[in-house]
Amino acid sequence: MKVVYTDAHLLHDPHAEIEASSIHAPYEHIGRALAIRDALAADPAFSLVQPTTWGTAPISAVHDSDLVAFLSTAWAEYQAEVPGSREVFAEVFYRPGIRRGMTPARVPESIVGRLGWFCFETTTPLTETTYEASLGAVDTALTATQLVLDGERAAYGLCRPPGHHATTSNYGGYCFFNNAAIAAHHVASTTGTKVTVLDVDYHHGNGTQEIFYERDDVQYISLHGDPRRAYPFSVGFADETGAGRGSRCNCNIPLAAGTADDEYVALLGDRVATEVERFGPSLLIVSLGLDTFVTDPICDLAITTDGFARCGAAVGAMGLPTVVLQEGGYDVDALGENARRWLTGLASAG
Question: Which residue, of 6, 31, 205, 319, has the greatest Cβ tally within 10 A?
Fold first, then answer.
């Protein structure tokens, strides 16, 4: 299997995040992608290839151009106003209720205000070259997708930063541009066929859901920690099934704490496979979160390494050309082997 990888992710190297009322080393860091790269490079079943450059047009087809422009200049603008910050965090978040009944909201002029206009939480700092790293992640996703469109049965994009929390107009949750959504829109808009995005990250992909919620050409299916207890808390419930033309094209499967291999694999092989078959896509894009692992530090599910191999095989059994794009996974010591086993399971089903 071809693995699309670029060192551009090294350009996003935050040393701190604000989470659980503390400032600490980030869970999402460069070591994650390096661990996966090294594990796959050591296995002759995988071959690493560099992404091609796609530019910003595919990004602007999904995200508001104001968000793209903001991310390209925000760090430098912040240094001009508040110099000396290695990581730049949002601190004043816009909420519609602040201006209820008033004139329409306007984008703040101050960079301090604009950070909280475009970002929705505190764990996602900007660094000097975060924008360039994010472009590299999009290039990785689109190149892996093109490999499958050109005839590969499956390809893996080692995307970092991840993407599934980024909405049309906001970044957050470690995500700046929504790699999977950009890839799915590219396929749907250029081929005229349907695409399914299957999200198996522990955390619900609120961004992907928002982007496609009213569309009938991209189906979104997510298995994730129940938002009654799990990030992002306010979205990801089972009654969110799509709207308008997108009615019945969104499927959320919230999971109980402690969900383990047998139940998870059964869901993939039964309910998820049935939903995919009903929709009838030409291609499957998997948002691969490996943070469902039993010892992941920000998860309460119980998937094992052997379980990941079974999950990959269950997805492969759906019989669709498949693009796999990396999202979360924070037990770095196990991350490389977990990725290798999931992808090996996918390949074995062919």
Answer: 205
